[in-house]
């Protein structure tokens, strides 16, 4: 089953992405699969913040882990709604999620 996730890129263009829930993907991998400009330098280990995004709507996300919180405390352009895309697994609960990519460093 796929869920719809909307992602606003750094130019303000909104991309409506069909995200498979049965492939153990995360938001960073989804962005890369659709060729959105997300580096994912650390490979999804919450160690680089190059997949930082802003959550724009109220969709239940998994709790932020210690590693993600520590990385965001050192990252640039962090807002109260910042999350690392690599730490958000694609699940059916994400249906309708709206995100915006954080600026590049």
From TrEMBL:
The species this protein was found in: Flavobacterium cutihirudinis
Alphabetized InterPro entries for the sequence: 2Fe-2S_ferredoxin-like_sf (IPR036010), Adrenodoxin-like (IPR001055), Beta-grasp_dom_sf (IPR012675)
SUPFAM superfamilies hit by this protein: 2Fe-2S ferredoxin-like
Keywords carried by this UniProt record: 2Fe-2S, Iron, Iron-sulfur, Metal-binding
Superkingdom classification of source: Bacteria
Molecular-function GO terms, alphabetical: 2 iron, 2 sulfur cluster binding; electron transfer activity; metal ion binding
Organism phylogeny: Bacteria, Pseudomonadati, Bacteroidota, Flavobacteriia, Flavobacteriales
GO biological process terms on file: P450-containing electron transport chain
Protein name per its UniProtKB record: 2Fe-2S ferredoxin
Extent of the signal sequence: none
